[in-house]
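Final report, closing paragraph on structural work. Over the funding period we assembled a curated collection of sequence-structure pairs, and we close with a single example.
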Amino acid sequence: MAGKRDCLYLGNLEAKRDWGSARAYVEGMWRILQHQPDDFVLATGETHTVRTFVGACLQASRKGDRLGGRRR
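Its predicted structure, as stored:
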């Protein structure tokens, strides 16, 4: 299978990120465009680890929890 990988390296799985939906962010960008130029922040206000996010993605894709690797 040309161009496909068996493994995806994610780095620090305990890093926390603010994960939001594309739909919510696009709506936020549209709302920003309705205002005069200024500084705006789009965020959910909640952080989750990369490990939690990837685990949810694996569950949603029905692959089960096949998240391996070393804990740091």
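The beta strands are 16-17, 48-49. The chain has a mean pLDDT of 86. We thank the funder for supporting this effort.
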